[in-house]
Amino acid sequence: MTKPYDALIIGAGHNGLVCAFYLAKAGLKVRILEARDVVGGAAVTEEFAPGFRNSVASYTVSLLQPKVIADMKLADHGYRVIERPISNFLPQEDGTYLKLGGGLERTQAEFRKFSNRDAEVLPQYYDALENVAELLRDLALRVPPNVGEGLRTLLDGARQGRRFAGLGLEQQRDVLDLFTKSARTMLDSWFESEAVKAAFGFDAVVGNYASPDTPGSAYVLLHHVFGEVNGKKGAWGHSVGGMGKITEIMAKVCRDHGVEISLESPVAKVLVDGGKAVGVKLVGGEEIAAARVIANVGPKLLYERMMDASDLPADFQRRIKGFQAGSGTFRMNVALSELPKFTCLPEPGEHHQSGIILAPTLDYMDRAFLDAKQYGWSKAPIVEMLIPSTVDECLAPPGQHVASLFCQQFAPELPGGRDWDDEEEIAADTIIDTVEKHAPGFRASIIAQTRLSPKGLERKFGLVGGDIMHGNMSLDQLWAARPIFGNGGYRGPVKGLYMCGAGTHPGGGVTGAPGHNAAQVILRDRGLFAPRWR
Questions:
Q1: Pairing relation of β-strands 30-33 and 260-262?
Q2: Cβ atoms < 10 Å from Cβ of 169
Q3: Quick check: 89 and 357 in contact, CB under 8 A?
Q4: 88 in a domain, yes or no?
Q5: Which end of the chain is least crowded, N or C, by CB within 10 Å?
Q6: Least confident of 71-80, 85-94, 163-172
Q7: At 530, is the pLDDT very low, low, confident or very high (cuts 50, 70, 90)?
Q8: In the listed set 202, 232, 262, which residue is the last one of a domain according to the structure?
Q9: Do 21 and 128 fall into the same domain?
Q10: Residue 211: left if φ>0, alpha if ψ -120 to 50, beta else—which one?
Q11: Is 351 a member of any domain?
């Protein structure tokens, strides 16, 4: 085997880069092994037609931790995010529309088109959501208590539960609602307008192969609102240069700190000797030794495909087999000759710079899920469109545009033994037809397109079942139970093996939190718990 490293990291996605940065900054010799020919994992920008570039998978910014941005000095290297003027734009089936965001008063004015009552209750809803979101922000950069460590588990749990215990009774009830109830049940208790409920309920099905009626789906809604952009809480924005610009900068910062990044180096197997992870074997046969191995891939990929079953405890194998992954996502990029002209609002405007949500009601979202369960995808899928070229001229030729189509409720595995490779084009046509109903002429404006079914996302990015979260964001797979109890603190079941990806706390999205937290644990285990970590 080649000479050992202090740490080998599998996967150069953003969490792997964040983890590598903190370890290298502490003096460790770190090498990242990336299967693809580019860094970034699912946060990459690529040209998909001459003159047209866009974020391939991950496509928008909010959840990236301010501490990570500051520690890595990303802004000094060109990191820049443009905030959306409004959050979302929802065309309705009756020809009306709803705009969400742009300030409380503007949103209230929009809500009054549908319900005066909903406009009046909105400030209280925002306050309730923010109280719980603040709790999540506080937990995001904390290592969950690792169940099974006796007194330490109790102490860590008590410290992290202190904030919840300090909430008032009403706020504690809000926490319970958001963690356990369905999105519909929770939203029904606040609002009466179906359009308003859809505006908030959409976040509950993003990357979540479930109905808004599924218990626990309210938490997924919450997971998408605890971020911030340029210091503004709950805001979303566009990374200038696409999402790949973020990971390009991260890779440069890592290299400046001595991190070695090896592209086109897919890992076939984690090597275990004497109950300890001692390195990896690449697909090409090369073996590389290291004092520790850190996986920035999902739990299903790591434990079911990269490790021998004999190296894992039997109970752990059984529980990982039961770990649920598969987010029901279909991703498209399209090159456009012109901006879409929505029937309800055809002229260019701020709505073209927002998230354009084609899912007018919770019933629509529920039908999409039921269709997917029965047929494989919805006849009327849930579509979010972003047109980043409206604010970032480097992505498309003058006068032309690129659009991201992020689509929900596409079965990770098609029923009846059908294969996504055979059905991908048909599903893409269904998505385009859905947009065409709201923006006639959209299909004719398409110059080029790319499409990634759940199978395509797995093949390209290693996302098992196409799961952008590395595993369901359900209550049984969160915090100290992510991926399973007893291994929820970034340590694997084998000594010297760690995880730093979205399959650990606090979960999916471009946050950098798992990478940050895993590095904290690794340095603590190595005895390098420097004062700055406190």
A1: parallel
A2: 7
A3: yes
A4: no
A5: C
A6: 163-172
A7: very low
A8: 232
A9: no
A10: beta
A11: yes
Alpha carbons 511 and 469: distance in angstroms, whole number: 11
Q: Is the pTM of this model over 0.85?
A: yes
In angstroms and rounded to an integer, the radius of gyration of the C-alpha atoms of the chain is 22
d(CA 37, CA 76): 26
12-21, 120-129, 143-152, 290-299: range with lowest mean pLDDT: 143-152
Of 362, 320, 67, nearest to 202 by C-alpha is: 362
Residue 192 lies inside a defined structural domain of this protein: yes
Backbone angles phi, psi at 10, to 5 degrees: -90, 110
Pairing relationship of beta strands 287-290 and 232-233 according to DSSP bridges: unpaired
How do beta strands 293-295 and 7-10 pair?
parallel
Residues 453 and 437 placed together within one structural domain of the fold: yes
Region 272-296 average pLDDT: 96
DSSP bridge partners of 232: 229
Reply yes or no on whether the pLDDT at 327 is more than 90: no
Judgement on whether residues 191 and 287 belong to the same structural domain of the protein: no
Q: Are 440 and 374 contained in the same domain?
A: yes
**Exposed / middle / buried, residue 85 (Cβ in 10 Å: 0-12, 13-18, 19+):** middle
Q: Are residues 334 and 388 in the same domain?
A: yes
Closest CA to 224 of 210, 207, 249, 212: 207
Residue 446 sits in the same domain as residue 475: no
Tell me which of 465, 488, 519 is where a domain ends: 465
53 in any annotated domain: no
Mean pLDDT of 222-240: 82
Count of domains for the chain = 3
- What is 455-480 written as a DSSP string? HHHHHHH--GGG-TTSS---GGGSGG
Q: Which has the closest alpha carbon to 296: 59, 490, 46, 533?
A: 490
- Residue 370 and residue 269 share a domain: no
pLDDT at 407 exceeding the cut of 90? yes
Contacts for 191-194 with beta carbons within 8 Å, 24 or more apart? 191/115, 191/118, 191/121, 191/125, 192/115, 192/117, 192/118, 193/111, 193/114, 193/115, 193/118, 194/360, 194/361, 194/362, 194/363
| Neighbouring-strand partners of residue 405 | 332, 385
Cβ 142 vs Cβ 514: under 8 Å = no
> What pLDDT is recorded for position 402?
98
Contact at 8 Å (CB) between 5 and 288? yes
Distance CA 53, CA 76 (A): 24
Q: How far is it, in rounded angstroms, from Cα 218 to Cα 256? A: 42
Domain identity same for 253 and 367: no
How far is Cα 385 from Cα 408, in angstroms, rounded to an integer? 12
**Structural domain containing residue 130:** 100-232
pLDDT digit string, tens, across residues 161-217: 666 667 777 778 877 787 888 999 999 999 999 999 999 999 999 888 999 999 989
Contacts of 58 by beta carbon, 8 Å cutoff, 6+ apart: 42, 43, 243, 468, 510
